Amino acid sequence: MELRDLIREARINKCSDLHITAGAEVGVRRYGELQLLDIKPTAEETEKMLFSVLREDDIRMIKEGRDIDVAATDETGGRLRINIYHQRRNLAASVRLLEPNIPSFEDLGLPGKLLAQLTTKRSGLILVTGPTGSGKSTTLAAMIDYINNNMSRHVITIEDPIEYVYGFKKSMIHQRQVGRDVPDFATALRSSLREDPDIILVGEMRDYETINAAITASETGHLVLSTLHTRSAAQTVERIISACPIEAQPALVVQLASVLTGVITQTLVPLDGQEGRTAATEIMLNNTAVANLIKEQKTNQIQTVLQSNIQAGMHTMNYSLANLVKTRKISRDTALKYSENPTDLSKNI
Fold it and tell me: Which of 56, 148, 153, 259 has minimal CB crowding within 10 Å?
């Protein structure tokens, strides 16, 4: 049994993830749903499969009992993000299958004109948020690819691990992997300020040190793109503030209100009557009203601003879900299931 055979079948069947566990059924995630296959690799087969895509230092870390994140390219040219870990004294792995080609905004069902405008900003902080598996990395890749095709910029990405790989087109793109090229996100961010970047992509803002470094980079004239695991614009602002020590929060909210350019929250929702999923989004753009709410920490009022600024390109998740129901892309029941406020959505529909 070869890893490449499992990956090939998973790609043919439009799966997003592949789960391999020694002595247990192989699992695949297809359109968000987990399915178990009638394939059970032994411990020896699992080790052979996983070690086939690892370097010697990765194998050494695995044998020392450590978990690792690596990226690889399969025979289709598609990228793989692989997390290898230990469970019940055996190996297991989660393999995320990334598309061989970076999709466009339109391919992803995202508001392309608005996202294109955001990428032209010379400075600020743009956050793409959503739960695990909602397509955040792909949206960021589409933004970087748009920049690469249309603008002359120096882009530095800081990732763990490197997912999509970009060639030089109109832009120059340098990609740095945490744990190999740099020790951590915060150190890489501080270092990047001395490397003449126009745009910095941070794979994830995991802690206060990284958040603080990202905001500082935004303040000093750089456009910073990053992700958070949050389900709304209001929750995104709350998460950033709550990650900050209490004594530093007054200064941080002023900084955040000044540099935050926009928040794109997304989730993938099953289509009605056919296979596949589509993106539902919430978009917040910073304006005077939003900035004042951030400074006053009145995040509960952000939804009202989104509802009253639809003409400016903002909208709530419920607005997006309601539109998908009205255009018959998703069912009413599906929309209510994915809504954070189903009562309000029911009235909208």
Answer: 56
CATH 3.40.50.300 residue ranges of the chain are 112-348
Contact 135, 152 (CB under 8 A): no
CATH 3.40.50.300 fits 112-348, yes or no: yes
**Start-end of CATH 3.30.450.90 domains in the chain:** 3-97
Q: How far is CA 150 from the centre of its chain?
A: 22
pLDDT of residue 348: 82
Q: Give the strands of the sheet with 90-97, arranged side by side.
A: 33-36, 27-30, 15-21, 90-97, 79-87, 68-73
pLDDT at site 262:
98
Structure tokens at 108: 């992803």
pLDDT number for residue 1: 75
SS3 205: coil
Which stretches of the chain score pLDDT less than 70? none
Confirm if 224 and 124 have CB atoms less than 8 A apart: yes
Q: How many residues does the chain have?
A: 349
* Domain 3-97 class in CATH: alpha beta
d(CA 206, CA 32): 24
In this structure, are residues 176 and 163 in contact, taking their beta carbons and an 8 Å threshold? no
Look at residues 139, 61, 227, 166 and name the one whose alpha carbon lies nearest to residue 69: 61
Give how far Cα 311 sits from Cα of 114, 207, 342, Å: 12, 34, 24
CB 231 within 8 A of CB 207: no
User: The tokens 């998460």 sit on which residue?
Assistant: 239
